[in-house]
């Protein structure tokens, strides 16, 4: 800073002091009204002041962030820039690392063995979304690998004629609730931003939501399952269907026929060939 600039600053401060102004107020922090696909969501919101340097887990070649904004009412907007396919694995890996460190829900952190981020193709046309990991998922760190997971895999492979690796499978909540209880509204609210970011990165063409808890969370509705399944919904502009959770189908064999009807509806819209007979 030059001597001339220093002189001008001193002069300005002196004139303010003479005017009785002892402190210069900081500008108010700006309200953040949009969330982007970031890797630092676990941190408190930004406040005015010098930035605190921290290493970024995202490679410097990462694309511009995908903007996410959740309105007070209505469906979330996952508009913004589509993430190029080649960047998606890195962004998902960075997000998975962030989830693995997450401690927003103390009860779940105390009882989980590990987080279950989800798995599948980063360019999946179809994403399945369940409720929360169970015991087997907690043990392996993979989604839908217990008995319900075997049924879901059958639905995908034998029913829809797809490979499990072709789709993406995730849950609303990434840590197992103890005793397989339902996640609390607070736990769901804590974890939902991770799922929103997964969806924004993958940007599937279709969503298949499994069970009441996932459906009521994503569609922001209290309607019962029999009013939600069998029709199309929209989540952030993505065509979405709701069907029974595979764990419920295992307990309630009569739900199998309705689940198959829902899958047929999905397959037709996806342009997949629908087998004439329901797979065993
Ligand atoms: S459920 Fe989600 S928000 Fe809660 S601790 Fe696990 S990863 Fe974090």
What this model shows, in words?
The chain has a domain at 85-272: Uracil-DNA glycosylase-like domain (Uracil-DNA Glycosylase, subunit E, 3-Layer(aba) Sandwich). It is 38% helix and 11% strand. It is built from ten helices and eight strands. Strands 3-5-4-6-8-7 form a six-stranded mixed beta sheet, with helices on both faces. β7 and β8 form a beta hairpin. The longest helix is centred in the C-terminal third of the chain and has 18 residues, at 185-202. The model is unreliable at 11-73 (pLDDT under 50). Iron/sulfur cluster is lined by residues 99, 102-105, 108-109, 115, 173-175, 187, 190-191.
| End-to-end separation | 79 Å
Strand proportion, as a percent range, falls in 5-15%
Can you count the beta strands? 8
> Might you state the CATH topology name of the domain at 85-272?
Uracil-DNA Glycosylase, subunit E
Order of helices and strands: HEEHHEEHHEHEHHEEHH
Question: Which helices and strands occur, and which strands form pairs?
Answer:
Elements: H1 3-18, E1 35-36, E2 67-68, H2 88-100, H3 106-111, E3 119-120, E4 126-130, H4 135-140, H5 147-159, E5 168-171, H6 185-202, E6 206-210, H7 212-219, H8 225-228, E7 232-235, E8 238-243, H9 246-251, H10 255-270
Helix pairs in contact: 2-6
Bound molecules: iron/sulfur cluster.
Give descriptors for this structure.
280 residues, alpha/beta, Uracil-DNA Glycosylase, subunit E, 6-stranded mixed sheet, two-stranded antiparallel sheet, 38% helix, globular, binds iron/sulfur cluster
Briefly, what is this?
With 280 residues, the protein is of the alpha/beta class.
């Amino acid at each position: 800073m030059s001597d001339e600039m220093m002189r001008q600053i001193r002069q300005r401060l002196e004139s303010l002091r003479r005017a009785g102004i002892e402190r210069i107020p900081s500008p108010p922090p700006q309200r953040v009204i949009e969330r982007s696909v970031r890797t630092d969501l676990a941190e408190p919101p930004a406040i005015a002041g010098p930035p605190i340097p921290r290493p970024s887990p995202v490679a410097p070649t990462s694309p511009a962030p995908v903007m996410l904004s959740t309105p007070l009412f209505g469906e979330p907007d996952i508009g913004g820039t589509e993430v190029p396919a080649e960047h998606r694995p890195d962004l998902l890996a960075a997000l998975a690392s962030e989830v693995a460190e997450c401690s927003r829900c103390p009860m779940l952190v105390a009882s989980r063995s590990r987080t279950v981020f989800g798995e599948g193709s980063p360019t999946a046309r179809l994403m399945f979304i369940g409720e929360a990991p169970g015991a087997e998922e907690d043990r392996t760190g993979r989604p839908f690998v217990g008995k319900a997971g075997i049924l879901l895999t059958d639905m995908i492979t034998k029913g829809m004629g797809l490979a499990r690796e072709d789709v993406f499978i995730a849950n609303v909540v990434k840590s197992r609730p103890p005793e397989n209880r339902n996640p609390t509204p607070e736990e769901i609210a804590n974890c939902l931003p991770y799922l929103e970011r997964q969806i924004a990165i993958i940007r599937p063409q279709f969503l298949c939501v499994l069970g009441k808890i996932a459906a009521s969370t994503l569609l922001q509705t209290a309607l019962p399952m029999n009013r939600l399944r069998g029709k199309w919904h929209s989540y952030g502009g993505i065509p979405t269907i709701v069907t029974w959770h595979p764990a419920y189908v295992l307990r309630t064999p009569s739900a199998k026929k309705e689940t198959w009807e829902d899958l047929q509806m999905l397959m037709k819209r996806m342009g997949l060939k629908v087998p004439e007979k329901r797979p065993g």
